[in-house]
Design goal:
Elements (H helix, E strand, L loop, with lengths): L1 H23 L3 E3 L3 H25 L1 H6 L3 H17 L3 E3 L2 H25 L1
Antiparallel strand pairs: 1-2
Helix pairs in contact: 1-2, 1-5, 2-4, 4-5
């Protein structure tokens, strides 16, 4: 049950972060269909829950040495991979990628613990 709550919390935050980035930034475009946006958020959630913890575990000493900056780079890499493979998301510039990563990172850092407690 806890795993489902973690996945649901990450999905909601990813969906909210992508929608905020699309509305606030010029270089981020999502498809207009609800199912396309939900699929994009689901794919980012799967990358965020399945792939990033392995990378963070392997590179933990370097994350500590860089005071967490490498974790931000991993999040940007996950979003960049999603941009490459998902046809429902288009990020036009590096600055849009960095700002979108910042939005998603801040949402997950501050709201993820609160949502996990709710579910």
């Amino acid at each position: 049950m806890k795993l489902i709550g973690n996945i649901l919390a990450s999905f909601v935050l990813s969906l909210a972060g992508l929608l905020i980035a699309q509305n606030a930034l010029d270089g981020v475009t999502l498809t207009s269909s609800i199912s396309g946006i939900a699929l994009t958020a689901l794919l980012f959630t799967l990358i965020y829950i399945l792939v990033l913890p392995i990378a963070r575990f392997i590179f933990k000493p370097f994350i500590i040495l860089t005071f967490g900056l490498l974790s931000f780079v991993f999040n940007a890499g996950a979003l960049w991979i999603l941009d490459i493979y998902a046809t429902t998301l288009t990020i036009d510039s590096l600055s849009a990628l960095v700002y979108t990563t910042g939005i998603l990172t801040l949402l997950h850092a501050f709201l993820y613990p609160l949502l996990r407690r709710l579910w």
